[in-house]
Structure formats: C-alpha cells, structure tokens
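Class prep. Sample record?

___
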Amino acid sequence: IEPATLDELRIIVEAMPERLRLMVLLAAWCALRYGELAELRRKDVDLANGVVKVRRAVSFTPGGAVVGPPKTDAGIRDVAIPPHLHDIVRDHLKDHVRQAQDSLLFRSDSGGHMYESVVYKRWNAARKVAGRSDLRFHDLRHTGATLAAQAGATTAELQARLGHTTSDAAMIYQHAAKGRDRQLARELSRLAAG
C-alpha cells in the first residue's frame, strides 16, 4: 500500500463535497476505519480535550446498517485530533451536524448512516483528480498510521491509536518510518549546533 502524500491528501479533500471533507481528514489524520467514521456522533467529539471517542462502529448488511462494537476490544479508544483539524471539526459540527448529541457526524440525506457506496462515488472522483486511482478509502487509515510513525509514534502508541490488539500490525508502520533516518540525522546535527 502506498500511502497518500500530503499534497495528494490536500487535493482529494478539496475535490470532495464539503460535508465529506472531514470524513477524509479524520480517516487520514486519525487513522479511523470507515465503520468507525460512519457511526461517529456529536457526543463522540470532545474538542475541549481534542479527541474523538471511538465507542461503536457500523457495518452494512443486506438487511441494513448494524451498529455494534468496533472491530476489536482495543478499538474502543480515544484518538487525539491533530490541532490543525480542530477548527475544521468545529465548523463541520456547526454546518453539517444536527444539535442533538446523538446526531451522526456524517449522515445520509435521509438522516441515517451514510453507506460506503455514497461516499465511494465521490471518493473515486476525488482520488482521480489527485492522480491516485489506486488509493482505496481504507488506505487513508494506512496513511494516518504512517504519518503517526513519521511523527515519532512508538509501536505501543501506534497500536493504541489504531485500536490494534497486537503490536504486529503497528510494526508495519514503524518499518515504513525507517526511511526517516536521514531526516533524524539532520535534526540531531541541528540540535548539536544549538
């Protein structure tokens, strides 16, 4: 999986309808799964503490949307929202989310859960604009994990952020961050220079 670059992510977000931009940003910067995103509600966003609380996920069956726990027990977690997204989250809550605490962050036109097919139609067009027809929506989660690893997250921190029960999956992103060695060396020299 080739994660999205920051430029590609910016292009994709700008190409998405306004009401879906935050979904893409949270998928990438918070490494959330689609089912977790689609079940987020106003009460799950704590801007005072800068976190999104993942407590439930939705899956889509032939019989309709089914809400249950996240994929794993470790999936129940608080994920810190990067500060550069706080105003975007606040604006999304103001402009696109009903006032009731149980209101979905990303709702369908009928007010229910937003099926993947609705998002993917827009997603497919946006990723083409960025020249990344290969990028799946789920790859944004990998993008977020890689960005966190590049920012210096330990394996344990990645495991907690992603909601993984073992460190095996988190280790993939640690290996992806090893390409940062030259950047780290430059930073060490900068520190040495005072």
In short: The mean pLDDT is 88. The chain is about 50% helix and 10% strand. The first strand starts at residue 45 and ends at 46.
